[in-house]
Amino acid sequence: MRNFSDTERKVLASGIELRYLPDEYLFRQGQKAEFVFYLQEGSLLLESKDGFVTIDKKGVFIGIEEAIESKKHIYSAMTSSYAQFLVFERKYFQQLIDEFDLAFSFFEFKKSEYNEFLLKVQQKYVTK
Fold this sequence. Notes:
alpha+beta, Jelly Rolls, four-stranded antiparallel β-sheet
């Protein structure tokens, strides 16, 4: 694993902190990905045609893949408890990639880390 601590510090310092109550939507399936959410506290549900997945791992970027690739969300995201996020506008997220040398590599790492986490969680639900 690369040491991204300096890049991570710079990126996270540029997010806007928002708090959400339980049962609030961050975005809905099919909506254009305009924001990326970095989970600092709390939990949320991701809902897709395959069911629900609970995310309660701090330090996860929600919607990162869709934002990087300018896609629409493939799931809906709704808070399941009080939650706190750092929020990044997609355009600004792209600017961070251009501005910091290791930002793209850092975001690719975080995207793959998140996708691995989702696969593990989804496999757990499939095997039950």
